[in-house]
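*** Backbone structure tokens ***
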Amino acid sequence: MKICRFIDPETQRPSFGLIEGEEILTLRGDLSEGNLSLEGVEPSIRLAQAQLLPPVSPSKIVCVGRNYSEHAAELGNPMPSEPLLFLKAPSALIAHGQHIELPHTSQRVEHEGELAVVIGRKCSRLAPDEDPLPYVLGYTCLNDVTARDLQRKDVQFTRGKSFDTFCPVGPYVVTGLDPSDLSVETRVNGEVRQSGRTSAMAFPVPFLIRYISNAMTLEAGDLIATGTPSGVGPLRDGDTVEVEVEGVGILRNPVRAPTF
């Protein structure tokens, strides 16, 4: 299934929808409350007429650094012995089609295309033998946009990763995927910059969910950004960046200089 989040044209409020061909069926309930229902759907609207939102509204975005060895090497970093976790501010979220804005304070903003895990129900302190995948709603595309110069200057990641517009997500959440060997590709103006497979992750999705759940409670709607393949590069005013994850679709965002 493909699940989206959009502005309901009648109520002008955010709603979840099930995508069927070129239409959206409005779902009942709220993912964050764990009661999203695929039953009793409302009449449909045309997908082309819908104003898409980020497909989830997470309480937190948990990111994994250096989860692909070639990416760690291209930045001159050693591979960690355990997952390297950091948080990205939820206020950085934008939807498919919205602009990434380049901040005045950075001279080097880069793309990082990733597979993102969407948590479907509360998940805490999973045991070593407990299967984490039943806690997953589905998967989506994420661009972990990074002010690389500020990341290096600050040493820690918060500022360089959390500017407004620095977390494009979408366009949909797709259920039922096997995350173990999916293609992840990033293109800028049609040119392939990154191309990798999730099978190359140092720490696969089930391990990451279990590991993170033993550090913090994961709530329904939370995102786990699973790391980026090698090939990260700069974004400039006027660029269009696309992140494509096999089985999910294409997340596309234009890039522009700050408007203030």
Q: What stands out?
A: DSSP finds four helices and 18 strands in the chain. The mean pLDDT is 94. The longest strand covers residues 136-143. The first helix runs from residue 69 to 74.
